[in-house]
Amino acid sequence: MLSVDEALSRCLDTVIDVRTEIVDLRAAYGRVLAEDITVHTPLPPWDNSAMDGFAVRSQDTDVIESSPDIDECSQEANHTANGPWLNIVDTVAAGQVSNTSVEKGNAVRIMTGAPLPDGTDSVVMREYATCSSDGTKVQIHQRAVVGQNVRYQGENAEKGTVVLEAGQTLHPASVGLCAAVGKEKV
């Protein structure tokens, strides 16, 4: 039989020294987090488009007009000729920001991930729109509702939210989440 001191000594001899190290995110897969990962800015950081299409004021999509001067913006060919015609006043790609404030009767061509322009409250998918042949107007074939195809600031995580807890083993999705919240090293 072992004494308490001898048993304790044997146990302490088998303890592995686990050090904390900081590694590049690309080398983090399979590692265990030593500290919580917290969101420092809202995720997403701004209201943005969830689809390619047209950022509009939803109340502008109620009017019904028609025009023979149309050329499809989308691959879809089964639109009705009804819907409001709006002026295209800007185009915003992902990574860009529009300086245009959208007023009544206007729309902005927008790509997925691009920040929602001021004055707009919804996005109509390009499949539900038809452009004029000169590309300056768009006819909307779907009534928009507030928030349609919009991802709101902080919708996934508010500032200060712990998104990964210390002690978790990092897998591909959690490494991606670290990147999404701006962590380059963990």
Topology overview:
Layout lengths: L3 H10 L23 E2 L9 E2 L3 E4 L13 E3 L12 E8 L13 E5 L11 E4 L3 E4 L4 E4 L9 E2 L10 E3 L7 H9 L6
How would you characterize this protein structure?
A seven-stranded mixed sheet has the order 4-8-9-5-6-3-7, with no helix packed on it. Strands 1-11 form a two-stranded antiparallel ribbon. Strand 8 and strand 9 form a beta hairpin. With 186 residues, the protein is an alpha+beta fold. The protein is rod-shaped, with a radius of gyration of 26 Å. The two termini are 45 Å apart.
Entry summary:
With 186 residues, the protein is α+β, with helices and mostly antiparallel strands. Helix content is 10%, strand content 22%.
Oligomeric grouping of the chains? single chain
Gyration radius from CA atoms, angstroms: 26 Å
What share of residues is helical? 10-25%
Q: Estimate the mean pLDDT confidence.
A: 89
Tags for this model:
alpha+beta; two-stranded antiparallel sheet
